[in-house]
Design goal:
417 residues; 18 helices; single chain; globular; mainly alpha
Length: 417
Amino acid sequence: MKRKNVILAMLVILGMVTFLDRINISVAGSSIMHDLDLSPAQWGWVQSAFILSYGLMQIPMGALGDRYGHRKILAAIVLWWSAFTAFTGQAGGLVSLLVIRFMFGIGEAGSSPCSTGVISRWFEKGEVGKAQGYVWAASRMGGALTPFVVIPVMMWVGWRAAFYLLGALGVVWAVVWWLYYRDGSPGSISSQSSQSSQSSLSSQTREYRQSGGLQWGALLRNRQFWLLCLMYFFYAFGSWFFFSWFPTFMELGRGFDKTELTYAVAVPFVMSMVGNIAGGHLTDRLTQKYGIKTGRKALGSTSLAVSAVCMFLAAFIPGKMAVFVFLSLCFGIFDLMLPSAWALCIDLGRQHAGTISGAMNTAGNLGGFCCGILFGQLVQSSGNYNLPLYMIAAMLLVSAFLFSLINPTKQIIDYRL
Protein backbone atom coordinates (compact mmCIF):
# COMPACT_ATOMS: atom_id res chain seq x y z
CA MET A 1 0.00 0.00 0.00
CA LYS A 2 1.25 3.48 -0.85
CA ARG A 3 2.44 5.50 2.11
CA LYS A 4 -0.10 8.26 1.46
CA ASN A 5 -2.93 5.71 1.56
CA VAL A 6 -1.74 4.43 4.93
CA ILE A 7 -1.68 8.01 6.16
CA LEU A 8 -5.20 8.55 4.84
CA ALA A 9 -6.33 5.38 6.63
CA MET A 10 -4.90 6.74 9.86
CA LEU A 11 -6.73 10.04 9.35
CA VAL A 12 -9.92 8.08 8.69
CA ILE A 13 -9.51 6.26 12.01
CA LEU A 14 -8.80 9.59 13.71
CA GLY A 15 -12.02 10.99 12.27
CA MET A 16 -13.94 8.12 13.87
CA VAL A 17 -12.20 8.54 17.24
CA THR A 18 -12.78 12.29 17.17
CA PHE A 19 -16.54 11.90 16.84
CA LEU A 20 -16.84 8.95 19.19
CA ASP A 21 -15.28 11.17 21.87
CA ARG A 22 -17.36 14.18 20.84
CA ILE A 23 -20.83 12.65 20.43
CA ASN A 24 -20.73 10.42 23.50
CA ILE A 25 -21.83 13.25 25.79
CA SER A 26 -24.82 13.97 23.56
CA VAL A 27 -25.93 10.34 23.56
CA ALA A 28 -25.59 10.25 27.35
CA GLY A 29 -27.20 13.68 27.65
CA SER A 30 -30.52 12.83 29.30
CA SER A 31 -28.81 10.58 31.87
CA ILE A 32 -26.20 13.22 32.72
CA MET A 33 -28.88 15.92 33.00
CA HIS A 34 -30.84 13.69 35.38
CA ASP A 35 -27.87 12.64 37.54
CA LEU A 36 -26.37 16.13 37.81
CA ASP A 37 -29.75 17.90 37.98
CA LEU A 38 -29.18 20.15 34.94
CA SER A 39 -31.87 22.19 33.18
CA PRO A 40 -32.11 22.46 29.36
CA ALA A 41 -30.56 25.93 29.52
CA GLN A 42 -27.65 24.64 31.63
CA TRP A 43 -27.19 21.71 29.28
CA GLY A 44 -26.98 24.17 26.40
CA TRP A 45 -24.06 25.85 28.18
CA VAL A 46 -22.34 22.50 28.74
CA GLN A 47 -22.56 21.74 25.02
CA SER A 48 -21.40 25.24 24.13
CA ALA A 49 -18.42 25.20 26.53
CA PHE A 50 -16.81 22.60 24.29
CA ILE A 51 -17.81 24.40 21.11
CA LEU A 52 -16.37 27.70 22.39
CA SER A 53 -12.87 26.39 23.10
CA TYR A 54 -13.02 24.16 20.02
CA GLY A 55 -13.79 27.21 17.89
CA LEU A 56 -11.29 29.59 19.49
CA MET A 57 -8.37 27.19 19.11
CA GLN A 58 -8.92 26.23 15.46
CA ILE A 59 -6.62 28.92 14.03
CA PRO A 60 -3.81 28.44 16.58
CA MET A 61 -3.86 24.67 16.16
CA GLY A 62 -3.94 24.89 12.37
CA ALA A 63 -1.03 27.34 12.43
CA LEU A 64 0.95 25.15 14.86
CA GLY A 65 0.56 22.16 12.54
CA ASP A 66 1.63 24.22 9.51
CA ARG A 67 4.65 25.63 11.32
CA TYR A 68 5.97 22.78 13.46
CA GLY A 69 4.72 19.73 11.59
CA HIS A 70 1.70 17.51 12.03
CA ARG A 71 3.47 14.53 13.58
CA LYS A 72 4.08 16.07 16.97
CA ILE A 73 1.05 18.39 17.00
CA LEU A 74 -1.52 15.70 16.16
CA ALA A 75 -0.01 13.25 18.65
CA ALA A 76 -0.04 15.87 21.42
CA ILE A 77 -3.59 17.10 20.89
CA VAL A 78 -5.07 13.60 20.66
CA LEU A 79 -3.42 12.68 23.98
CA TRP A 80 -4.79 15.93 25.48
CA TRP A 81 -8.41 15.45 24.47
CA SER A 82 -8.33 11.74 25.32
CA ALA A 83 -7.36 12.64 28.88
CA PHE A 84 -10.26 15.07 29.19
CA THR A 85 -12.64 12.55 27.64
CA ALA A 86 -11.81 10.29 30.57
CA PHE A 87 -12.04 13.20 33.04
CA THR A 88 -15.63 13.82 31.88
CA GLY A 89 -16.54 10.64 33.70
CA GLN A 90 -15.39 12.30 36.94
CA ALA A 91 -17.66 15.37 36.61
CA GLY A 92 -19.68 16.05 39.74
CA GLY A 93 -21.77 19.04 38.72
CA LEU A 94 -22.26 21.92 36.33
CA VAL A 95 -19.02 23.80 37.06
CA SER A 96 -16.69 20.80 36.77
CA LEU A 97 -18.47 19.67 33.61
CA LEU A 98 -18.08 23.11 32.04
CA VAL A 99 -14.35 23.22 32.81
CA ILE A 100 -13.69 19.68 31.58
CA ARG A 101 -15.60 20.13 28.32
CA PHE A 102 -13.88 23.47 27.68
CA MET A 103 -10.46 21.82 28.09
CA PHE A 104 -11.57 18.88 25.93
CA GLY A 105 -12.43 21.30 23.12
CA ILE A 106 -8.93 22.81 23.14
CA GLY A 107 -7.48 19.47 22.07
CA GLU A 108 -10.13 18.48 19.54
CA ALA A 109 -9.75 21.88 17.86
CA GLY A 110 -6.62 20.74 16.07
CA SER A 111 -7.99 17.58 14.49
CA SER A 112 -9.66 18.99 11.36
CA PRO A 113 -7.15 21.74 10.43
CA CYS A 114 -4.16 19.46 11.01
CA SER A 115 -5.78 16.64 9.02
CA THR A 116 -6.39 19.13 6.21
CA GLY A 117 -2.75 20.20 6.41
CA VAL A 118 -1.62 16.58 6.07
CA ILE A 119 -3.92 16.02 3.08
CA SER A 120 -2.67 19.21 1.38
CA ARG A 121 0.90 17.87 1.54
CA TRP A 122 0.24 14.29 0.44
CA PHE A 123 -2.54 14.52 -2.15
CA GLU A 124 -2.83 16.18 -5.55
CA LYS A 125 -5.48 18.81 -6.28
CA GLY A 126 -7.68 16.26 -8.06
CA GLU A 127 -7.57 13.96 -5.04
CA VAL A 128 -8.14 16.28 -2.09
CA GLY A 129 -11.94 16.26 -2.34
CA LYS A 130 -12.08 12.46 -2.16
CA ALA A 131 -9.55 12.39 0.66
CA GLN A 132 -11.55 14.96 2.64
CA GLY A 133 -14.73 13.04 1.89
CA TYR A 134 -13.35 9.82 3.39
CA VAL A 135 -12.07 11.59 6.51
CA TRP A 136 -15.37 13.37 7.12
CA ALA A 137 -17.35 10.23 6.31
CA ALA A 138 -15.32 8.42 8.96
CA SER A 139 -16.18 11.09 11.50
CA ARG A 140 -19.87 10.52 10.79
CA MET A 141 -19.33 6.78 11.11
CA GLY A 142 -17.89 7.52 14.53
CA GLY A 143 -21.08 9.38 15.33
CA ALA A 144 -23.18 6.47 14.06
CA LEU A 145 -21.24 3.99 16.19
CA THR A 146 -21.42 6.11 19.34
CA PRO A 147 -24.92 5.05 20.49
CA PHE A 148 -24.03 1.39 19.93
CA VAL A 149 -20.99 1.85 22.19
CA VAL A 150 -22.31 4.31 24.77
CA ILE A 151 -25.88 3.09 25.37
CA PRO A 152 -24.98 -0.55 26.22
CA VAL A 153 -22.17 0.64 28.52
CA MET A 154 -24.56 3.13 30.15
CA MET A 155 -27.18 0.47 30.72
CA TRP A 156 -24.60 -1.96 32.09
CA VAL A 157 -22.29 0.13 34.31
CA GLY A 158 -23.42 3.75 33.89
CA TRP A 159 -22.55 6.72 31.70
CA ARG A 160 -19.25 7.52 33.41
CA ALA A 161 -17.61 4.27 32.29
CA ALA A 162 -18.30 5.10 28.63
CA PHE A 163 -15.99 8.11 28.88
CA TYR A 164 -13.16 6.05 30.39
CA LEU A 165 -13.43 3.51 27.58
CA LEU A 166 -13.44 6.05 24.75
CA GLY A 167 -10.59 8.05 26.29
CA ALA A 168 -8.32 5.01 25.97
CA LEU A 169 -8.90 4.74 22.19
CA GLY A 170 -7.29 8.09 21.50
CA VAL A 171 -4.15 7.17 23.42
CA VAL A 172 -3.64 4.13 21.19
CA TRP A 173 -4.06 6.21 18.01
CA ALA A 174 -1.59 8.90 19.19
CA VAL A 175 1.12 6.32 19.89
CA VAL A 176 0.73 4.66 16.47
CA TRP A 177 0.73 8.05 14.69
CA TRP A 178 3.91 9.14 16.44
CA LEU A 179 5.69 5.91 15.54
CA TYR A 180 4.63 5.86 11.87
CA TYR A 181 4.13 9.36 10.50
CA ARG A 182 6.88 11.70 9.32
CA ASP A 183 6.27 15.28 8.19
CA GLY A 184 6.84 15.43 4.47
CA SER A 185 5.40 14.71 1.04
CA PRO A 186 5.51 11.78 -1.40
CA GLY A 187 8.56 13.30 -3.07
CA SER A 188 10.53 13.84 0.12
CA ILE A 189 9.83 10.61 2.04
CA SER A 190 10.10 7.01 0.85
CA SER A 191 8.61 4.08 2.67
CA GLN A 192 12.11 3.11 3.83
CA SER A 193 13.02 6.59 5.05
CA SER A 194 14.08 7.04 8.63
CA GLN A 195 14.94 10.73 8.38
CA SER A 196 14.01 13.01 11.20
CA SER A 197 10.92 15.22 11.07
CA GLN A 198 13.06 18.32 10.66
CA SER A 199 14.99 17.09 7.62
CA SER A 200 11.92 15.73 5.82
CA LEU A 201 9.59 18.70 6.04
CA SER A 202 7.57 19.18 2.87
CA SER A 203 8.29 22.03 0.50
CA GLN A 204 5.08 23.74 1.59
CA THR A 205 6.12 23.69 5.24
CA ARG A 206 9.60 25.01 4.36
CA GLU A 207 7.99 27.84 2.39
CA TYR A 208 5.84 28.67 5.38
CA ARG A 209 8.84 28.96 7.66
CA GLN A 210 10.96 30.93 5.18
CA SER A 211 8.15 33.40 4.55
CA GLY A 212 7.84 34.30 8.21
CA GLY A 213 4.28 32.99 8.34
CA LEU A 214 0.91 34.11 7.10
CA GLN A 215 0.21 37.71 6.03
CA TRP A 216 -2.60 38.32 8.53
CA GLY A 217 -3.39 41.84 7.36
CA ALA A 218 -3.94 40.69 3.79
CA LEU A 219 -6.00 37.76 5.03
CA LEU A 220 -8.34 39.88 7.15
CA ARG A 221 -8.93 42.33 4.29
CA ASN A 222 -9.86 39.57 1.86
CA ARG A 223 -13.54 39.23 0.87
CA GLN A 224 -13.13 35.56 -0.04
CA PHE A 225 -11.91 34.80 3.47
CA TRP A 226 -14.94 36.39 5.13
CA LEU A 227 -17.40 34.74 2.76
CA LEU A 228 -15.85 31.35 3.53
CA CYS A 229 -16.03 31.95 7.28
CA LEU A 230 -19.58 33.32 7.27
CA MET A 231 -20.81 30.48 5.08
CA TYR A 232 -19.46 27.98 7.58
CA PHE A 233 -20.80 29.95 10.55
CA PHE A 234 -24.39 29.54 9.33
CA TYR A 235 -23.86 25.95 8.13
CA ALA A 236 -22.71 25.03 11.63
CA PHE A 237 -26.15 25.81 13.10
CA GLY A 238 -27.28 22.67 11.31
CA SER A 239 -24.26 20.47 11.91
CA TRP A 240 -23.93 21.28 15.61
CA PHE A 241 -27.60 20.51 16.19
CA PHE A 242 -26.78 16.92 15.20
CA PHE A 243 -23.56 16.89 17.24
CA SER A 244 -25.09 18.29 20.42
CA TRP A 245 -28.88 18.46 20.85
CA PHE A 246 -30.02 15.80 18.38
CA PRO A 247 -30.18 12.72 20.70
CA THR A 248 -31.82 14.79 23.45
CA PHE A 249 -34.29 16.25 20.94
CA MET A 250 -35.26 12.79 19.70
CA GLU A 251 -35.68 11.43 23.23
CA LEU A 252 -37.32 14.35 25.05
CA GLY A 253 -38.82 16.22 22.08
CA ARG A 254 -40.23 13.36 20.00
CA GLY A 255 -40.53 10.55 22.56
CA PHE A 256 -37.97 8.01 21.38
CA ASP A 257 -36.97 5.57 24.14
CA LYS A 258 -33.41 4.32 24.72
CA THR A 259 -33.73 1.25 22.52
CA GLU A 260 -35.25 3.28 19.65
CA LEU A 261 -32.67 6.02 20.17
CA THR A 262 -29.78 3.75 19.18
CA TYR A 263 -31.00 3.45 15.59
CA ALA A 264 -32.71 6.85 15.44
CA VAL A 265 -29.34 8.51 16.11
CA ALA A 266 -27.18 6.09 14.11
CA VAL A 267 -29.06 6.19 10.78
CA PRO A 268 -28.77 9.98 10.24
CA PHE A 269 -25.02 9.72 10.90
CA VAL A 270 -24.80 6.89 8.37
CA MET A 271 -26.62 9.11 5.87
CA SER A 272 -24.09 11.82 6.62
CA MET A 273 -21.26 9.36 6.04
CA VAL A 274 -22.71 8.46 2.64
CA GLY A 275 -23.14 12.15 1.87
CA ASN A 276 -19.50 12.86 2.65
CA ILE A 277 -18.17 10.03 0.49
CA ALA A 278 -20.51 10.93 -2.38
CA GLY A 279 -19.73 14.62 -1.96
CA GLY A 280 -15.99 13.98 -2.08
CA HIS A 281 -16.25 12.04 -5.33
CA LEU A 282 -18.76 14.48 -6.82
CA THR A 283 -16.73 17.60 -6.09
CA ASP A 284 -13.59 16.14 -7.69
CA ARG A 285 -15.45 14.68 -10.67
CA LEU A 286 -17.47 17.84 -11.33
CA THR A 287 -14.34 19.96 -10.93
CA GLN A 288 -12.46 17.88 -13.51
CA LYS A 289 -15.39 17.88 -15.98
CA TYR A 290 -16.97 21.34 -15.57
CA GLY A 291 -14.44 23.39 -13.65
CA ILE A 292 -13.90 24.33 -10.04
CA LYS A 293 -16.84 26.74 -9.80
CA THR A 294 -19.32 23.97 -10.54
CA GLY A 295 -17.39 21.32 -8.64
CA ARG A 296 -17.12 23.33 -5.45
CA LYS A 297 -19.66 26.18 -5.43
CA ALA A 298 -22.71 24.76 -7.23
CA LEU A 299 -22.59 21.49 -5.31
CA GLY A 300 -22.17 23.22 -1.96
CA SER A 301 -24.88 25.85 -2.28
CA THR A 302 -27.44 23.43 -3.75
CA SER A 303 -26.90 20.88 -0.99
CA LEU A 304 -27.38 23.50 1.72
CA ALA A 305 -30.58 24.85 0.17
CA VAL A 306 -32.20 21.42 -0.14
CA SER A 307 -31.21 20.49 3.41
CA ALA A 308 -32.89 23.65 4.71
CA VAL A 309 -36.18 22.41 3.25
CA CYS A 310 -35.74 19.03 4.97
CA MET A 311 -35.05 20.72 8.31
CA PHE A 312 -38.19 22.82 7.96
CA LEU A 313 -40.30 19.74 7.19
CA ALA A 314 -38.83 17.87 10.16
CA ALA A 315 -40.06 20.66 12.44
CA PHE A 316 -43.41 21.16 10.70
CA ILE A 317 -44.64 17.55 10.35
CA PRO A 318 -45.39 15.79 13.67
CA GLY A 319 -44.60 12.19 14.57
CA LYS A 320 -41.59 9.96 15.05
CA MET A 321 -41.27 8.58 11.54
CA ALA A 322 -41.50 11.96 9.81
CA VAL A 323 -38.82 13.58 11.94
CA PHE A 324 -36.59 10.52 11.57
CA VAL A 325 -36.87 10.55 7.76
CA PHE A 326 -36.46 14.28 7.20
CA LEU A 327 -33.60 14.73 9.66
CA SER A 328 -31.81 11.74 8.14
CA LEU A 329 -32.20 13.30 4.69
CA CYS A 330 -31.16 16.70 5.99
CA PHE A 331 -27.94 15.44 7.55
CA GLY A 332 -27.01 13.40 4.48
CA ILE A 333 -27.75 16.16 1.98
CA PHE A 334 -26.07 19.10 3.67
CA ASP A 335 -22.93 17.02 4.23
CA LEU A 336 -22.64 16.56 0.48
CA MET A 337 -21.10 20.04 0.63
CA LEU A 338 -18.57 19.32 3.38
CA PRO A 339 -15.73 17.92 1.23
CA SER A 340 -16.23 20.90 -1.13
CA ALA A 341 -15.91 23.37 1.74
CA TRP A 342 -12.73 21.80 3.09
CA ALA A 343 -11.27 21.35 -0.39
CA LEU A 344 -11.89 25.09 -0.85
CA CYS A 345 -9.51 25.73 2.03
CA ILE A 346 -6.79 23.97 0.05
CA ASP A 347 -7.80 25.67 -3.24
CA LEU A 348 -7.81 29.11 -1.64
CA GLY A 349 -5.16 28.71 1.05
CA ARG A 350 -2.46 26.52 -0.57
CA GLN A 351 0.52 26.38 1.85
CA HIS A 352 -1.66 28.06 4.48
CA ALA A 353 -4.45 25.48 4.13
CA GLY A 354 -4.22 24.44 7.79
CA THR A 355 -4.60 28.01 8.99
CA ILE A 356 -7.39 28.88 6.56
CA SER A 357 -9.32 25.73 7.43
CA GLY A 358 -8.79 26.52 11.11
CA ALA A 359 -10.26 29.99 10.59
CA MET A 360 -13.24 28.56 8.72
CA ASN A 361 -13.85 25.99 11.41
CA THR A 362 -13.50 28.67 14.09
CA ALA A 363 -16.33 30.58 12.47
CA GLY A 364 -18.34 27.38 12.22
CA ASN A 365 -17.89 26.62 15.86
CA LEU A 366 -18.91 30.10 16.87
CA GLY A 367 -22.11 29.32 14.97
CA GLY A 368 -22.35 26.03 16.83
CA PHE A 369 -21.81 27.85 20.14
CA CYS A 370 -24.72 30.18 19.36
CA CYS A 371 -26.88 27.24 18.26
CA GLY A 372 -26.24 25.28 21.45
CA ILE A 373 -27.20 28.17 23.71
CA LEU A 374 -30.14 29.41 21.63
CA PHE A 375 -31.57 25.91 21.31
CA GLY A 376 -31.59 25.45 25.09
CA GLN A 377 -33.00 28.91 25.75
CA LEU A 378 -35.79 28.48 23.18
CA VAL A 379 -36.77 25.10 24.60
CA GLN A 380 -36.73 26.34 28.20
CA SER A 381 -38.75 29.49 27.43
CA SER A 382 -41.30 27.86 25.09
CA GLY A 383 -41.34 24.21 26.13
CA ASN A 384 -41.31 23.42 22.39
CA TYR A 385 -38.44 21.35 20.99
CA ASN A 386 -39.56 21.99 17.39
CA LEU A 387 -39.16 25.77 17.47
CA PRO A 388 -35.33 25.81 17.19
CA LEU A 389 -35.50 23.69 14.03
CA TYR A 390 -37.14 26.56 12.14
CA MET A 391 -34.23 28.77 13.19
CA ILE A 392 -31.74 26.19 11.92
CA ALA A 393 -33.54 25.90 8.55
CA ALA A 394 -33.23 29.66 8.07
CA MET A 395 -29.51 29.57 8.88
CA LEU A 396 -28.91 26.83 6.30
CA LEU A 397 -30.55 28.99 3.63
CA VAL A 398 -28.25 31.89 4.50
CA SER A 399 -25.26 29.54 4.26
CA ALA A 400 -26.38 28.38 0.81
CA PHE A 401 -26.54 31.97 -0.42
CA LEU A 402 -23.08 32.82 0.93
CA PHE A 403 -21.55 29.68 -0.59
CA SER A 404 -22.85 30.81 -4.00
CA LEU A 405 -20.84 34.05 -3.67
CA ILE A 406 -17.44 32.39 -3.13
CA ASN A 407 -15.04 32.39 -6.09
CA PRO A 408 -13.03 29.15 -5.85
CA THR A 409 -10.60 30.28 -8.58
CA LYS A 410 -9.30 33.26 -6.63
CA GLN A 411 -6.64 32.37 -4.08
CA ILE A 412 -7.09 34.14 -0.75
CA ILE A 413 -3.44 35.21 -0.53
CA ASP A 414 -1.34 35.63 -3.66
CA TYR A 415 1.84 34.63 -1.88
CA ARG A 416 5.26 34.71 -3.50
CA LEU A 417 8.66 34.13 -1.94
